[in-house]
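Hello again,

I reread your note about wanting to compare the complex against the isolated chains. To keep things tidy I'm splitting this into two emails, and this first one only covers the full assembly. Below are the input lines as submitted, including protein chains and any nucleic acid or small-molecule components. They are followed by the predicted structure of everything together. The single-chain runs will come separately.
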Amino acid sequence: MTRYLSVRIAGKSSPDAPVLTPARLADWCRRFTPLAAPDAPDGAMLDITGAAHLFGGENALAAEIEARLAKLGYEARAALADTPEAAWALARHGDARAIPEGADEKALRRHLGALPVAALRLDAQTAYALSQTGLKRIDDLILRPRAPIAARFGAEVFARLDGLLGRIRSPITPRFEAPVYLVERRFADPIARREDVEGALAMLAGDLTRLLERHGEGARQLEATLFRADGAVRRIAAASSRPLREAGAIARLFHERIKAAGEARDEDPLDSGYGFDLLRLAALEVERLGARQDALGSADFAPPTAPRSRRAATHEPAPEMAEDLTDLVDRLGARLGLRRVMRLVPQDAHLPEFAVLAMPAAQLRSGGREASWSGEIALPRPIRMFERPEPVEAMAEAPDGPPLRFRWRRVLHEVAAIEGPERISSEWWRQDAHALTRDYFRVEDRKGHRFWMYREGLYGVEAPRPRWFMQGLFA
Amino acid sequence: MSQGGSSERVGFLRAAIARIEAQNTAGALALSAAQGRLCEVTPATASDGAAACGFALSLAIAAAARPGLIVWVMEDFVFHENGAPYGPGLHHHGLPMERFVLVRTEGPRQTLWALEEALKSRACAAAIGELRDGARHFDLSATRRLTLAARAGRSEGLLLHTRPAQGLSTAAQLRFEVCGQPGPTLASAGGRRPIPTQPAWGVRVLKARAADGQYGRPDAERRREMIWGRTLPQQKGQADDALSLGSDRRQKLA
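Full-complex prediction:
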């Protein structure tokens, strides 16, 4: 049996109350249950199944929500029922706080029958039209034959009524999925200092680690939620490229995230204001992670020389190094952004600029299906390439011949050695209409600088006057 | 420092170079790389950036004889302005691409931070940090931190300057100044211009700090010519395909 709680903000009781949109209200309500949905225009809907006892029962929970919102400067009303519709109706139009759990239809009618039809959450026009015809209360609708009313006012009226009476189930759409694992810590006095917050997160990381260990899993996606005393909610996400189950590593990830936030804004990175009274750490995505084998058996008991030398020969990272490695990638990614820590993966493409793809390093798995670089070396390619080829003024003996000298970035280069052309055109199946054939030249100037440049367009066939571009630099 | 000790050290460096020339192995330049160190590579002129970059990559490849990642940290400006690292080219240069990680940062502070993290992580064989205005950010305390990080992680730190840097005061153990150098070429048919083959650089060792008594005072005036050859399995048969110092090799190839 599910249980729903509807919160409705009736109005402000204090002029300087913070702005509370339904989405922010829903975020704020996540301190009571992970499943909270914004309920426009003035409230939020909470699925509190199995959560009420944590706050001393349903009545106490509703009272606490009302009291906390009152402290923020809002007049609020909370009501509970077995269906979202009933809770909604009760919060807005009823006097009772709750309809008892498992109430049958008769009990529901007793509680809701006297409410006006507006409690069905119909638009104002329909509700007015209904009341004009004398159907003022919900009871009036229940007893009438349905067909004529549905024909005149729409089928929605009875869909709502059925929802209200629990004849059909209508789920709510929580703003965020419920996390897989969740640990939290509440503070009687809000904490504001960054060190305290990070310390508390480290403790939570310890709790989470124990939870993960018991289930033999490691976290890939983590989220810390900081509930500020004045109702604002701050969420900090962190991701890991391997299933993570060390409290220290988790804490370090969040340390970097918080630091990165501070760098971006150059001020208090947490915007802690009045301080946080609830900190929550959740694992949003987990992966199986076998029990960890500790020092026993790895370094102390295995013969140290044989496996190590084999490893050195194949450049295989040692397992402890593999861990350092993913830790490094995660830490850099947490601070700089995952997309800024990249690995280059070869692609099967003709045009040089498409021959390589930068993938976030955290996404690549060892033994993944990506192409590898192990193939034999083809033709020389530059070590650096310009994102956009830069125009070059080149002078050649013949319009389709190699250049004698060229001017690039306002410097004149005399060609001393040259190899080419290497003709590259884009794949015929690509719908790239204006892609011209390129003739690439490997050029060395008299000073010993090496360039990769191309002439775009076949002379006289594709272009009357082919242009030259600098695409890359050799070592 | 006595006269004898100094000349002894010069002698050591000469011996080391002689060893490099004799053995022709890519790893030989890594004099004390096993303990972790910080090297600086600066281009001699503004247009020698690619040469300096190639030389720094070669040092990284030499350090990659040890297991671990090769990290290249560069800020966005450098990425857009000086050219992005190009995978096939790096592969062709000899970099083990499956161990290569490229890190882009928003500015010098992040670059220094990322470089330090990489160096001390023990997961890196080499980390290259590329900065414009390097002289401004690679100051004594920043480079001292990096040196300690490199020691802690036993990794090779490489500071790559995008522009010639004068008046550097850093804690790096080695400083190289690199310029482009006409490389060995192959004659081409029909009296046309020759074909370029391997990269070559002119390298001056501006600084080799005797931190642990391994280096002597370098001959800063001497410009050594280096030819870089691929050291890939299928290429191993060719004797000249290795890091080499000295000009005699060039004549052999040409």
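For quick reference: Chain A touches chain B through 63 residues (CB under 8 Å).

B.
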